[in-house]
Amino acid sequence: PVLVPHADQYAEVLKTDGAVIASFAERRAEIVRQLQAAAAKVGGGVRPIEDEALLDEVTALVERPNVLVCEFEKQFLDVPQQCLILTMKANQKYFPLLDAAGKLTNQFLVVSNISPEDASAVIGGNERVVRPRLADAKFFFDQDRKKTLESRVDGLSKVVYHNKLGTQGERMARVCAIARAIGQQLGGDLLAKQSEQAARLAKTDLLTDMVGEFPELQGIMGGYYARHDGLPAEIADAIEDHYKPRFAGDELPRNPVGVVVALADKLETLVGMFGIGNLPSGDKDPFALRRHALGVIRMLIEKNLAIDLSTLLALAVPVFGDKISDASEPLTAFIYDRLAGGLREQGFSAQEVDAVLALQPQRLSDVAQRLAAVRAFAALPESPALAAANKRIGNILKKAGEVDAHVNTGLLKEDAEKALHAAMARLVPESTAQFDAGDYTASLQTLAALHGPVDAFFDDVMVNAEEMDLRLNRQGLLKSLHVAMNRVADLSRLAA
Question: Which stretches does DSSP call E strand in 93-173?
Fold first, then answer.
Protein backbone atom coordinates (compact mmCIF):
# COMPACT_ATOMS: atom_id res chain seq x y z
CA PRO A 1 0.00 0.00 0.00
CA VAL A 2 1.01 3.61 -0.57
CA LEU A 3 0.69 5.78 2.53
CA VAL A 4 -0.37 9.38 1.91
CA PRO A 5 0.55 11.61 4.90
CA HIS A 6 -1.76 14.44 3.86
CA ALA A 7 -4.45 14.99 1.24
CA ASP A 8 -2.44 17.82 -0.29
CA GLN A 9 0.33 15.30 -1.06
CA TYR A 10 -1.99 12.74 -2.68
CA ALA A 11 -1.02 13.29 -6.32
CA GLU A 12 2.71 13.68 -5.60
CA VAL A 13 3.00 10.59 -3.37
CA LEU A 14 0.89 8.48 -5.74
CA LYS A 15 3.21 9.41 -8.59
CA THR A 16 6.52 8.87 -6.77
CA ASP A 17 5.65 5.85 -4.63
CA GLY A 18 2.87 4.25 -6.69
CA ALA A 19 4.00 5.22 -10.20
CA VAL A 20 0.43 6.39 -10.87
CA ILE A 21 -0.45 9.73 -12.47
CA ALA A 22 -3.66 10.77 -10.71
CA SER A 23 -4.50 13.80 -12.84
CA PHE A 24 -6.37 12.98 -16.06
CA ALA A 25 -4.96 16.05 -17.83
CA GLU A 26 -1.41 15.28 -16.74
CA ARG A 27 -1.79 11.62 -17.71
CA ARG A 28 -3.16 12.62 -21.11
CA ALA A 29 -0.28 15.01 -21.71
CA GLU A 30 2.20 12.29 -20.76
CA ILE A 31 0.62 9.86 -23.24
CA VAL A 32 0.86 12.48 -26.00
CA ARG A 33 4.51 13.08 -25.12
CA GLN A 34 5.31 9.36 -25.20
CA LEU A 35 3.40 8.81 -28.47
CA GLN A 36 5.39 11.56 -30.16
CA ALA A 37 8.66 10.33 -28.69
CA ALA A 38 8.00 6.75 -29.82
CA ALA A 39 7.14 7.91 -33.35
CA ALA A 40 10.31 10.01 -33.46
CA LYS A 41 12.33 6.97 -32.36
CA VAL A 42 10.85 4.90 -35.20
CA GLY A 43 12.01 7.64 -37.58
CA GLY A 44 11.19 8.16 -41.22
CA GLY A 45 8.78 10.99 -40.49
CA VAL A 46 6.08 8.69 -39.12
CA ARG A 47 3.41 10.09 -36.81
CA PRO A 48 0.64 8.57 -34.69
CA ILE A 49 -2.88 9.05 -35.97
CA GLU A 50 -4.67 12.00 -34.37
CA ASP A 51 -7.86 11.00 -32.57
CA GLU A 52 -8.95 13.05 -29.57
CA ALA A 53 -11.72 10.62 -28.57
CA LEU A 54 -9.33 7.64 -28.64
CA LEU A 55 -6.78 9.61 -26.65
CA ASP A 56 -9.37 10.43 -23.98
CA GLU A 57 -10.53 6.82 -23.83
CA VAL A 58 -7.02 5.43 -23.46
CA THR A 59 -6.18 8.06 -20.84
CA ALA A 60 -9.13 6.82 -18.80
CA LEU A 61 -8.00 3.19 -19.16
CA VAL A 62 -4.44 3.46 -17.85
CA GLU A 63 -2.87 4.75 -14.65
CA ARG A 64 0.82 4.57 -15.51
CA PRO A 65 1.15 4.93 -19.29
CA ASN A 66 4.01 3.28 -21.13
CA VAL A 67 3.98 3.54 -24.93
CA LEU A 68 5.41 0.59 -26.90
CA VAL A 69 6.07 0.14 -30.62
CA CYS A 70 4.53 -2.94 -32.26
CA GLU A 71 4.14 -4.12 -35.83
CA PHE A 72 2.13 -6.45 -38.04
CA GLU A 73 2.83 -8.30 -41.29
CA LYS A 74 3.07 -6.03 -44.33
CA GLN A 75 0.74 -8.27 -46.32
CA PHE A 76 -2.19 -6.74 -44.44
CA LEU A 77 -1.42 -3.36 -46.01
CA ASP A 78 -3.17 -4.64 -49.15
CA VAL A 79 -6.43 -4.01 -47.27
CA PRO A 80 -7.74 -0.39 -47.47
CA GLN A 81 -6.07 1.52 -44.68
CA GLN A 82 -9.37 2.86 -43.33
CA CYS A 83 -10.34 -0.74 -42.46
CA LEU A 84 -7.08 -1.48 -40.67
CA ILE A 85 -7.06 1.84 -38.83
CA LEU A 86 -10.65 1.39 -37.68
CA THR A 87 -10.14 -2.15 -36.41
CA MET A 88 -6.97 -1.16 -34.52
CA LYS A 89 -8.62 1.88 -32.96
CA ALA A 90 -12.09 0.51 -32.25
CA ASN A 91 -11.22 -3.00 -31.13
CA GLN A 92 -7.75 -2.65 -29.62
CA LYS A 93 -7.35 1.05 -28.73
CA TYR A 94 -4.07 1.19 -30.64
CA PHE A 95 -2.55 4.24 -32.35
CA PRO A 96 -1.62 3.35 -35.97
CA LEU A 97 1.47 5.05 -37.38
CA LEU A 98 1.22 6.99 -40.64
CA ASP A 99 4.11 7.97 -42.88
CA ALA A 100 4.81 11.54 -43.97
CA ALA A 101 2.33 11.18 -46.84
CA GLY A 102 -0.44 10.01 -44.53
CA LYS A 103 -0.20 6.39 -45.64
CA LEU A 104 -0.55 3.63 -43.05
CA THR A 105 2.62 1.79 -42.06
CA ASN A 106 2.79 -1.71 -40.58
CA GLN A 107 3.69 -0.31 -37.16
CA PHE A 108 1.42 0.89 -34.37
CA LEU A 109 1.71 2.20 -30.82
CA VAL A 110 0.26 0.56 -27.73
CA VAL A 111 -0.33 2.45 -24.48
CA SER A 112 0.44 -0.16 -21.84
CA ASN A 113 -0.38 0.12 -18.15
CA ILE A 114 2.84 -1.59 -17.07
CA SER A 115 6.53 -0.85 -17.55
CA PRO A 116 8.47 -4.14 -17.38
CA GLU A 117 12.22 -4.17 -17.80
CA ASP A 118 11.78 -6.47 -20.78
CA ALA A 119 8.78 -5.31 -22.82
CA SER A 120 9.12 -8.01 -25.48
CA ALA A 121 6.38 -10.16 -23.96
CA VAL A 122 3.94 -7.23 -23.86
CA ILE A 123 4.82 -6.26 -27.43
CA GLY A 124 4.49 -9.85 -28.65
CA GLY A 125 1.15 -10.25 -26.91
CA ASN A 126 -0.31 -7.17 -28.55
CA GLU A 127 1.00 -8.23 -31.96
CA ARG A 128 -0.64 -11.65 -31.52
CA VAL A 129 -3.93 -10.05 -30.49
CA VAL A 130 -4.16 -7.68 -33.45
CA ARG A 131 -3.29 -10.30 -36.07
CA PRO A 132 -6.71 -12.07 -36.08
CA ARG A 133 -8.45 -8.69 -36.25
CA LEU A 134 -6.47 -7.72 -39.34
CA ALA A 135 -6.98 -11.18 -40.82
CA ASP A 136 -10.74 -10.74 -40.42
CA ALA A 137 -10.57 -7.40 -42.23
CA LYS A 138 -8.58 -8.98 -45.05
CA PHE A 139 -11.05 -11.86 -45.27
CA PHE A 140 -14.02 -9.45 -45.47
CA PHE A 141 -12.24 -7.42 -48.15
CA ASP A 142 -11.38 -10.48 -50.23
CA GLN A 143 -14.88 -11.97 -49.93
CA ASP A 144 -16.64 -8.72 -50.76
CA ARG A 145 -14.70 -8.31 -53.98
CA LYS A 146 -16.01 -11.64 -55.26
CA LYS A 147 -19.36 -9.94 -55.95
CA THR A 148 -19.83 -6.76 -57.95
CA LEU A 149 -21.78 -3.83 -56.59
CA GLU A 150 -24.22 -4.22 -59.48
CA SER A 151 -25.00 -7.78 -58.37
CA ARG A 152 -26.00 -6.47 -54.95
CA VAL A 153 -28.59 -3.94 -56.16
CA ASP A 154 -31.56 -6.32 -55.92
CA GLY A 155 -30.62 -7.15 -52.34
CA LEU A 156 -31.50 -3.61 -51.26
CA SER A 157 -35.18 -4.45 -51.79
CA LYS A 158 -34.92 -6.89 -48.87
CA VAL A 159 -33.66 -4.24 -46.43
CA VAL A 160 -36.32 -2.18 -44.68
CA TYR A 161 -35.58 1.55 -44.67
CA HIS A 162 -38.70 2.88 -42.92
CA ASN A 163 -42.11 1.30 -42.43
CA LYS A 164 -43.79 4.30 -44.09
CA LEU A 165 -41.21 4.85 -46.81
CA GLY A 166 -40.43 1.31 -47.91
CA THR A 167 -37.20 -0.58 -48.47
CA GLN A 168 -33.70 0.63 -49.25
CA GLY A 169 -34.38 -0.50 -52.81
CA GLU A 170 -37.40 1.79 -53.05
CA ARG A 171 -35.48 4.58 -51.39
CA MET A 172 -32.59 4.34 -53.83
CA ALA A 173 -34.99 4.31 -56.79
CA ARG A 174 -36.18 7.69 -55.49
CA VAL A 175 -32.60 8.92 -55.02
CA CYS A 176 -31.82 7.82 -58.60
CA ALA A 177 -34.77 9.79 -59.95
CA ILE A 178 -33.82 12.90 -57.98
CA ALA A 179 -30.14 12.58 -58.98
CA ARG A 180 -31.06 12.19 -62.64
CA ALA A 181 -33.27 15.29 -62.50
CA ILE A 182 -30.68 17.42 -60.67
CA GLY A 183 -27.93 16.21 -62.99
CA GLN A 184 -30.02 17.19 -66.00
CA GLN A 185 -30.57 20.67 -64.56
CA LEU A 186 -26.91 21.24 -63.71
CA GLY A 187 -25.06 19.48 -66.50
CA GLY A 188 -27.32 17.99 -69.13
CA ASP A 189 -27.56 14.39 -70.34
CA LEU A 190 -24.05 13.23 -69.39
CA LEU A 191 -24.19 14.41 -65.77
CA ALA A 192 -27.74 13.05 -65.46
CA LYS A 193 -26.64 9.61 -66.69
CA GLN A 194 -23.51 9.47 -64.50
CA SER A 195 -25.41 10.68 -61.44
CA GLU A 196 -28.12 8.06 -61.89
CA GLN A 197 -25.51 5.30 -62.27
CA ALA A 198 -23.65 6.36 -59.12
CA ALA A 199 -26.89 6.73 -57.15
CA ARG A 200 -28.03 3.25 -58.20
CA LEU A 201 -24.92 1.72 -56.62
CA ALA A 202 -24.38 4.18 -53.77
CA LYS A 203 -25.89 2.06 -50.98
CA THR A 204 -24.95 -1.41 -52.21
CA ASP A 205 -21.94 -1.56 -49.89
CA LEU A 206 -24.41 -1.74 -46.99
CA LEU A 207 -24.77 -5.40 -47.98
CA THR A 208 -21.03 -6.15 -47.79
CA ASP A 209 -19.32 -7.99 -44.94
CA MET A 210 -16.90 -5.12 -44.29
CA VAL A 211 -19.62 -2.50 -43.82
CA GLY A 212 -21.66 -5.01 -41.82
CA GLU A 213 -18.73 -5.22 -39.40
CA PHE A 214 -17.79 -1.53 -39.60
CA PRO A 215 -20.81 0.66 -40.51
CA GLU A 216 -18.54 3.72 -40.30
CA LEU A 217 -16.98 2.59 -43.60
CA GLN A 218 -20.17 2.90 -45.65
CA GLY A 219 -19.48 4.84 -48.81
CA ILE A 220 -15.74 4.46 -48.36
CA MET A 221 -15.88 0.74 -49.11
CA GLY A 222 -18.33 1.36 -51.93
CA GLY A 223 -15.68 3.51 -53.57
CA TYR A 224 -13.03 0.80 -53.23
CA TYR A 225 -15.32 -1.91 -54.59
CA ALA A 226 -16.47 0.31 -57.48
CA ARG A 227 -12.85 0.80 -58.54
CA HIS A 228 -12.28 -2.95 -58.25
CA ASP A 229 -15.32 -3.48 -60.50
CA GLY A 230 -13.71 -1.25 -63.13
CA LEU A 231 -16.18 1.60 -62.87
CA PRO A 232 -15.05 5.08 -64.01
CA ALA A 233 -13.26 7.20 -61.43
CA GLU A 234 -16.03 9.81 -61.28
CA ILE A 235 -18.58 7.09 -60.42
CA ALA A 236 -16.37 5.45 -57.78
CA ASP A 237 -15.49 8.81 -56.23
CA ALA A 238 -19.16 9.80 -56.15
CA ILE A 239 -20.11 6.57 -54.36
CA GLU A 240 -17.35 7.15 -51.81
CA ASP A 241 -18.22 10.82 -51.31
CA HIS A 242 -22.01 10.84 -51.32
CA TYR A 243 -22.31 10.83 -47.51
CA LYS A 244 -20.25 14.02 -47.32
CA PRO A 245 -20.26 16.30 -45.51
CA ARG A 246 -20.60 13.86 -42.60
CA PHE A 247 -19.93 16.47 -39.91
CA ALA A 248 -19.29 20.19 -39.47
CA GLY A 249 -16.13 21.18 -41.30
CA ASP A 250 -16.00 17.96 -43.34
CA GLU A 251 -14.93 18.23 -46.97
CA LEU A 252 -17.53 18.19 -49.74
CA PRO A 253 -17.77 15.65 -52.60
CA ARG A 254 -14.85 16.15 -54.95
CA ASN A 255 -16.61 16.01 -58.34
CA PRO A 256 -19.95 17.11 -59.85
CA VAL A 257 -21.37 13.57 -59.88
CA GLY A 258 -20.64 13.19 -56.17
CA VAL A 259 -22.25 16.55 -55.42
CA VAL A 260 -25.42 15.61 -57.32
CA VAL A 261 -25.73 12.20 -55.64
CA ALA A 262 -25.02 13.68 -52.20
CA LEU A 263 -27.68 16.33 -52.80
CA ALA A 264 -30.18 13.74 -54.00
CA ASP A 265 -29.50 11.44 -51.04
CA LYS A 266 -29.93 14.22 -48.48
CA LEU A 267 -32.98 15.72 -50.18
CA GLU A 268 -34.68 12.33 -50.32
CA THR A 269 -34.19 11.95 -46.57
CA LEU A 270 -35.37 15.49 -45.78
CA VAL A 271 -38.42 15.44 -48.06
CA GLY A 272 -39.40 11.94 -46.97
CA MET A 273 -39.08 12.52 -43.25
CA PHE A 274 -40.84 15.89 -43.35
CA GLY A 275 -43.50 14.36 -45.58
CA ILE A 276 -44.43 11.75 -42.94
CA GLY A 277 -44.16 14.25 -40.09
CA ASN A 278 -40.95 12.80 -38.71
CA LEU A 279 -39.38 16.13 -37.71
CA PRO A 280 -36.50 16.74 -35.28
CA SER A 281 -37.56 17.99 -31.87
CA GLY A 282 -35.31 19.39 -29.16
CA ASP A 283 -32.17 17.28 -28.95
CA LYS A 284 -33.79 14.39 -30.81
CA ASP A 285 -32.84 14.07 -34.46
CA PRO A 286 -32.54 10.32 -35.16
CA PHE A 287 -32.33 10.75 -38.93
CA ALA A 288 -29.77 13.60 -38.71
CA LEU A 289 -32.06 16.00 -40.57
CA ARG A 290 -30.22 19.04 -39.24
CA ARG A 291 -26.94 17.67 -40.57
CA HIS A 292 -28.54 16.82 -43.92
CA ALA A 293 -29.95 20.35 -44.22
CA LEU A 294 -26.54 21.87 -43.49
CA GLY A 295 -25.00 19.55 -46.07
CA VAL A 296 -27.46 20.73 -48.73
CA ILE A 297 -26.78 24.36 -47.78
CA ARG A 298 -23.00 23.96 -47.91
CA MET A 299 -23.05 22.27 -51.31
CA LEU A 300 -25.37 24.87 -52.83
CA ILE A 301 -23.24 27.73 -51.51
CA GLU A 302 -19.67 26.42 -51.64
CA LYS A 303 -20.08 24.67 -54.99
CA ASN A 304 -21.88 27.76 -56.34
CA LEU A 305 -24.63 25.63 -57.85
CA ALA A 306 -26.93 27.39 -60.30
CA ILE A 307 -30.15 25.84 -59.03
CA ASP A 308 -32.88 27.22 -56.78
CA LEU A 309 -33.89 25.60 -53.51
CA SER A 310 -37.53 25.61 -54.66
CA THR A 311 -36.49 23.79 -57.83
CA LEU A 312 -34.70 21.11 -55.84
CA LEU A 313 -37.75 20.49 -53.68
CA ALA A 314 -40.00 20.47 -56.74
CA LEU A 315 -37.79 17.75 -58.23
CA ALA A 316 -37.75 15.67 -55.05
CA VAL A 317 -41.35 15.74 -53.81
CA PRO A 318 -43.07 14.02 -56.80
CA VAL A 319 -40.86 10.90 -56.68
CA PHE A 320 -42.58 9.80 -53.46
CA GLY A 321 -46.00 9.54 -55.10
CA ASP A 322 -48.72 9.20 -52.46
CA LYS A 323 -46.38 7.95 -49.73
CA ILE A 324 -46.00 11.45 -48.25
CA SER A 325 -47.74 14.79 -48.02
CA ASP A 326 -46.01 17.81 -49.55
CA ALA A 327 -44.13 19.46 -46.68
CA SER A 328 -42.08 21.83 -48.85
CA GLU A 329 -43.13 24.89 -46.87
CA PRO A 330 -42.02 23.71 -43.39
CA LEU A 331 -38.93 22.07 -44.91
CA THR A 332 -37.98 25.33 -46.62
CA ALA A 333 -38.37 27.19 -43.32
CA PHE A 334 -36.25 24.51 -41.61
CA ILE A 335 -33.45 24.88 -44.17
CA TYR A 336 -33.45 28.68 -43.89
CA ASP A 337 -33.37 28.38 -40.10
CA ARG A 338 -30.28 26.15 -40.36
CA LEU A 339 -28.75 28.63 -42.79
CA ALA A 340 -29.44 31.55 -40.45
CA GLY A 341 -27.74 29.80 -37.55
CA GLY A 342 -24.69 29.00 -39.66
CA LEU A 343 -24.39 32.57 -40.92
CA ARG A 344 -24.56 33.99 -37.40
CA GLU A 345 -21.80 31.58 -36.36
CA GLN A 346 -19.71 33.00 -39.23
CA GLY A 347 -19.93 36.46 -37.67
CA PHE A 348 -22.83 38.09 -39.49
CA SER A 349 -25.17 40.06 -37.24
CA ALA A 350 -28.73 38.94 -36.60
CA GLN A 351 -29.94 42.10 -38.38
CA GLU A 352 -27.88 41.36 -41.49
CA VAL A 353 -28.99 37.74 -41.61
CA ASP A 354 -32.65 38.59 -41.01
CA ALA A 355 -32.58 41.26 -43.73
CA VAL A 356 -31.29 38.83 -46.37
CA LEU A 357 -33.18 35.68 -45.37
CA ALA A 358 -36.48 37.53 -44.92
CA LEU A 359 -36.71 37.37 -48.72
CA GLN A 360 -35.91 33.63 -48.72
CA PRO A 361 -33.50 33.98 -51.69
CA GLN A 362 -33.87 30.81 -53.71
CA ARG A 363 -30.31 30.85 -55.10
CA LEU A 364 -28.36 30.14 -51.91
CA SER A 365 -25.07 30.54 -53.74
CA ASP A 366 -25.53 34.32 -53.77
CA VAL A 367 -26.46 34.73 -50.09
CA ALA A 368 -22.89 35.71 -49.21
CA GLN A 369 -22.94 38.47 -51.84
CA ARG A 370 -26.25 39.75 -50.50
CA LEU A 371 -24.86 39.82 -46.95
CA ALA A 372 -21.78 41.72 -48.08
CA ALA A 373 -24.01 44.23 -49.86
CA VAL A 374 -26.19 44.70 -46.78
CA ARG A 375 -23.13 45.21 -44.59
CA ALA A 376 -21.74 47.81 -46.99
CA PHE A 377 -25.12 49.54 -47.20
CA ALA A 378 -25.49 49.62 -43.41
CA ALA A 379 -22.18 51.49 -43.19
CA LEU A 380 -23.46 54.35 -45.37
CA PRO A 381 -24.61 57.56 -43.62
CA GLU A 382 -27.91 57.37 -45.55
CA SER A 383 -28.65 53.85 -44.30
CA PRO A 384 -30.52 54.53 -41.01
CA ALA A 385 -32.96 56.99 -42.59
CA LEU A 386 -33.60 54.80 -45.64
CA ALA A 387 -34.11 51.69 -43.49
CA ALA A 388 -36.59 53.59 -41.32
CA ALA A 389 -38.37 54.92 -44.41
CA ASN A 390 -38.53 51.42 -45.88
CA LYS A 391 -40.14 50.17 -42.68
CA ARG A 392 -42.63 53.04 -42.78
CA ILE A 393 -43.47 52.32 -46.42
CA GLY A 394 -44.01 48.66 -45.59
CA ASN A 395 -46.47 49.57 -42.84
CA ILE A 396 -48.37 51.97 -45.13
CA LEU A 397 -48.67 49.34 -47.86
CA LYS A 398 -49.70 46.66 -45.39
CA LYS A 399 -52.60 48.81 -44.18
CA ALA A 400 -53.54 49.72 -47.75
CA GLY A 401 -53.91 46.08 -48.81
CA GLU A 402 -53.46 45.23 -52.48
CA VAL A 403 -51.56 48.07 -54.15
CA ASP A 404 -50.70 48.30 -57.85
CA ALA A 405 -47.12 49.48 -58.46
CA HIS A 406 -48.29 51.91 -61.12
CA VAL A 407 -47.79 55.68 -61.22
CA ASN A 408 -49.82 58.13 -63.28
CA THR A 409 -47.48 61.09 -63.77
CA GLY A 410 -50.46 63.34 -64.43
CA LEU A 411 -51.59 62.81 -60.82
CA LEU A 412 -48.28 63.89 -59.29
CA LYS A 413 -49.26 67.23 -57.76
CA GLU A 414 -46.66 68.03 -55.10
CA ASP A 415 -43.08 69.04 -55.95
CA ALA A 416 -41.71 66.43 -53.51
CA GLU A 417 -43.57 63.53 -55.13
CA LYS A 418 -42.52 64.73 -58.58
CA ALA A 419 -38.90 64.91 -57.40
CA LEU A 420 -39.07 61.41 -55.91
CA HIS A 421 -40.58 60.01 -59.09
CA ALA A 422 -37.89 61.70 -61.20
CA ALA A 423 -35.11 60.39 -58.95
CA MET A 424 -36.57 56.89 -59.13
CA ALA A 425 -36.85 57.11 -62.92
CA ARG A 426 -33.14 57.93 -63.02
CA LEU A 427 -31.79 55.58 -60.32
CA VAL A 428 -34.04 52.50 -60.20
CA PRO A 429 -33.21 51.26 -63.74
CA GLU A 430 -29.50 51.59 -62.93
CA SER A 431 -29.96 49.75 -59.62
CA THR A 432 -32.03 47.04 -61.34
CA ALA A 433 -29.36 46.49 -63.99
CA GLN A 434 -26.72 46.17 -61.27
CA PHE A 435 -28.91 43.71 -59.38
CA ASP A 436 -29.49 41.61 -62.51
CA ALA A 437 -25.71 41.56 -63.07
CA GLY A 438 -25.19 40.23 -59.53
CA ASP A 439 -23.56 43.42 -58.24
CA TYR A 440 -25.74 43.69 -55.15
CA THR A 441 -23.47 46.14 -53.35
CA ALA A 442 -23.61 48.64 -56.22
CA SER A 443 -27.37 48.12 -56.54
CA LEU A 444 -28.00 49.18 -52.94
CA GLN A 445 -25.48 52.01 -53.03
CA THR A 446 -27.18 53.44 -56.11
CA LEU A 447 -30.48 53.52 -54.22
CA ALA A 448 -28.83 55.33 -51.31
CA ALA A 449 -29.03 58.49 -53.44
CA LEU A 450 -32.82 58.40 -52.93
CA HIS A 451 -32.33 59.40 -49.29
CA GLY A 452 -33.03 63.11 -49.87
CA PRO A 453 -36.09 62.74 -52.14
CA VAL A 454 -37.62 60.10 -49.83
CA ASP A 455 -37.22 62.31 -46.75
CA ALA A 456 -38.69 65.29 -48.60
CA PHE A 457 -41.63 63.17 -49.78
CA PHE A 458 -42.59 62.18 -46.25
CA ASP A 459 -42.09 65.74 -45.01
CA ASP A 460 -44.24 67.40 -47.67
CA VAL A 461 -46.70 64.84 -49.05
CA MET A 462 -49.85 63.40 -47.47
CA VAL A 463 -49.87 59.81 -48.73
CA ASN A 464 -53.41 59.00 -47.66
CA ALA A 465 -54.99 61.98 -49.36
CA GLU A 466 -58.76 62.34 -49.26
CA GLU A 467 -58.96 62.11 -53.05
CA MET A 468 -58.95 58.39 -53.92
CA ASP A 469 -57.02 58.81 -57.17
CA LEU A 470 -54.22 60.79 -55.47
CA ARG A 471 -54.04 58.30 -52.60
CA LEU A 472 -53.81 55.27 -54.91
CA ASN A 473 -51.22 57.01 -57.09
CA ARG A 474 -49.02 57.84 -54.10
CA GLN A 475 -49.39 54.32 -52.76
CA GLY A 476 -48.38 53.06 -56.21
CA LEU A 477 -45.30 55.28 -56.12
CA LEU A 478 -44.35 53.89 -52.71
CA LYS A 479 -45.04 50.34 -53.91
CA SER A 480 -42.61 50.83 -56.81
CA LEU A 481 -40.03 52.23 -54.41
CA HIS A 482 -40.58 49.37 -51.95
CA VAL A 483 -40.03 46.75 -54.66
CA ALA A 484 -36.84 48.46 -55.83
CA MET A 485 -35.43 48.83 -52.32
CA ASN A 486 -36.06 45.24 -51.27
CA ARG A 487 -34.58 43.21 -54.11
CA VAL A 488 -31.32 42.42 -52.32
CA ALA A 489 -32.70 42.28 -48.78
CA ASP A 490 -35.55 43.51 -46.61
CA LEU A 491 -33.96 46.80 -45.60
CA SER A 492 -36.62 47.45 -42.97
CA ARG A 493 -34.87 44.79 -40.85
CA LEU A 494 -31.96 47.24 -40.49
CA ALA A 495 -34.16 49.89 -38.89
CA ALA A 496 -33.51 50.61 -35.22
Answer: 95-98, 104-112, 160-162, 166-167
